[in-house]
Design a protein that fits this description.
Helix content is 26%, strand content 24%. It contains seven helices and eleven strands. The chain is globular, with a radius of gyration of 18 Å. This is Glycosyltransferase 2-like domain-containing protein.
Length: 265
């Protein structure tokens, strides 16, 4: 294990090496990169967000998958998404065999008024395994990229715009953005975590995955750290992984009722 100071130095050194290794970075322009490290089969890079967002963009469609137990906090998530969605986007809300606060009908009506192709689905049986089987079930159905959200968290105002700007530069890469704790303010992945895709350093809401490659990893059904394991395996199997120093997702910290018995937090 590296000490924090050494890890910071290694990241700085990697950034310098990236400048010397521009020709090896393929389709992504060198000016968009801040650092480079290798991880198993692929390269892990830190994105220069300012350069990306100022550059040309490609039209991409996003699919947001949301497992839910029927909490009213889901409306806050949908309201954060509504002004950011485009006609080619998709939102799939999978109710895990229950509608705890009686919101299914209202959510269905809400989706009809939002731009894009969306649906709310009531599963016949509750899985009660952190929503992971539902993420597996719908992950490869629609869109160019898939994202995963929890029903008690939400996206920041410019989240999807930033996502589109970044992912359009490499349609085969895994992108890991940042999430911020709404109460405590801490951010993951933090600067010391760049270059590592590990349990505890990435949350389900951080990832943006090419739909054509999402089958390369699975959400483990009954594992509370399935998000870290899911993204770790993808990073090992995809040629490139990008850490993006941009907060797109807010974590409620368990605000309101927690559904720990059903695996949702």
């Amino acid at each position: 294990m590296q000490l924090p100071a050494l890890r910071w130095l290694s990241t700085a050194a990697a950034a310098f090496l990236a400048c010397l290794s521009c020709t090896a970075l393929g389709r992504v322009e060198p000016r968009l990169l801040m650092g480079l490290q290798t991880s198993h089969l692929g390269a892990i890079m830190v994105i220069n967000s300012h350069a990306v967002e100022a550059g040309p963009k490609r039209d991409v469609s996003l699919h947001i998958i949301i497992p839910s137990v029927g909490r009213r906090s889901l409306f806050r998530l949908l309201e954060s998404l509504e002004p950011q969605l485009q006609p080619r986007d998709h939102v799939t809300i999978s109710f895990d065999g229950q509608d705890r606060e009686g919101i299914f009908a209202a959510v269905t009506e809400k989706l009809k008024k939002m731009s894009g192709d969306h649906e709310a689905i009531m599963e016949r049986e509750a899985q009660k395994t952190h929503g992971n089987p539902l993420r597996n079930k719908y992950r490869a159905k629609k869109g160019d990229f898939v994202m995963f959200a929890d029903d008690d968290n939400w996206y920041v105002a410019d989240a999807l715009e930033s996502v589109r700007a970044h992912v359009s530069h490499d349609m085969d890469g895994l992108y890991l953005f940042q999430m911020q704790h709404a109460k405590m303010g801490n951010i993951v992945p933090d600067i010391l975590g760049w270059g590592e895709v590990e349990v505890g350093n990435v949350d389900s809401g951080c990832g943006v995955v090419p739909v054509r490659h999402v089958h390369l990893s699975d959400w483990l059904q009954d594992d509370y750290v399935a998000d870290g394991l899911f993204y770790k395996k993808l990073a090992e199997r995809l040629p490139r992984t990008y850490f993006v120093p941009k907060v797109i997702y807010m974590y409620s910290g368990g605000e309101g009722e927690r559904a720990t018995e059903n695996g949702h937090s």
